[in-house]
Amino acid sequence: MNSKQNPANATPRIIVVGNEKGGSGKSTTAMHIAVSMLRDGVRVACIDLDQRQGTISRYFENREAYAMRNSLELPSPKMVKIEQLGDGENDDVIDKHIHQAIETVSGKVGLVIIDAPGSDNKISRGAHSFADILLTPLNDSFIDLDVLARVNSETGKVERPSHYAEMVWKQKLRRAARDGGSIDWVVMRNRLGHTEAQNKKKVEAALTELSSRIGFRQVMGLSERVIFRELFLQGLTLMDIVEIKKGNLAISHIAARNEVRTLMEAINV
Ligand SMILES: Nc1ncnc2c1ncn2[C@@H]1O[C@H](COP(=O)(O)OP(=O)(O)OP(=O)(O)O)[C@@H](O)[C@H]1O
Ligand SMILES: [Mg+2]
What we know:
Elements: E1 13-17, H1 26-39, E2 44-48, H2 55-69, E3 78-80, H3 91-103, E4 111-115, H4 122-128, E5 133-139, H5 142-145, E6 149-151, E7 158-161, H6 163-179, E8 184-190, H7 197-214, E9 217-220, H8 226-230, H9 241-245, H10 251-267
Parallel strand pairs: 1-4, 1-5, 2-3, 2-4, 5-8, 8-9
Antiparallel strand pairs: 6-7
Helix pairs in contact: 1-2, 3-4
């Protein structure tokens, strides 16, 4: 059996893709992880917590439609619906609600991917506390870094953790209190440019300092590529590249697909 497959009765691994900053690449990354794992033979479920935009749900609808139109078999995850609860609900009710959603696929899939919204709400906070892996994509700029830490504008030094980092810390405590488990927090640098060497170095230095202070691993993510913007309507990922280009692969596509593979290894699901 593939070592990444879980036995049918095992509790699935849970990846939450989260960052309060909008547009950092959460849904794009979640789709790529889902399809990579499906293509490795792992059964995957997705929970779309961003019901306002519903990006990942729409994406997999587009995928189904594309597969039908082109008579293709494209692996897709099981989508799990979750009702939003008001921010007035207490934490126990929220936890039970998320737990029930996960239970519906427990024993049926090896991995659950939760795509969190780019804003703060109680159910998203609660979902973070269920993560085995919390993956936080971050655009490679100080604007995005600001949700993790206040950085001194003159020295470039980290002054203190910001609101999202504090929220993650609280969810780590909640998780430990609930079942003694821990959250492996992985910060992924997204939309890496090829030209901004100076900015890259500064962001990397700040993240390296911060990673030991607030407890995350830093991984290199995806380069800035136009293709990520184009794939949405077809519901395809770079891992479906053979279907996209009908076997006629450009070097840039192969490089992009390798980047996703390297990312998957670094996350170590
Ligand atoms: N590596 C990349 N290169 C180019 N474009 C990218 C890359 N990653 C994401 N994008 C684009 O950035 C935009 C935001 O991406 P995405 O929707 O995945 O972010 P998000 O964090 O889920 O946003 P939200 O917070 O609104 O849910 C999309 O147009 C997407 O195609
Ligand atoms: Mg999104």
